[in-house]
Design brief:
28% of the residues lie in helices and 26% in strands. By secondary structure, it is an alpha+beta fold. It has a domain at 22-56. The radius of gyration is 13 Å and the shape is elongated. The two termini are 21 Å apart.
Length: 65
């Protein structure tokens, strides 16, 4: 129910453009993305310290007319 279109980021934040169906809540999508990505980063030891996302997120929507 979700399609990743592009992901880009810098040292302290990430931008993701995704296509989601109306049955998907943005809050649930972000909860899943943050949980699975931090688990992956920590299991692979990709950072010198334990990785954690900051609390919260920003969401913007667009639609084709």
């Amino acid at each position: 129910n979700c399609k990743t279109i592009i992901v880009n980021g810098v040292e302290d934040h990430v931008h993701c453009l995704v296509g989601i169906k109306p049955v998907v809540a943005a809050s649930e999508l972000m909860k899943t993305v943050k949980a699975k990505s931090s688990k992956y980063i920590n299991e692979k030891r990709l950072t010198p310290r334990r990785f954690e996302w900051q609390v919260g997120y920003g969401v913007f929507s667009y639609g084709q007319s």
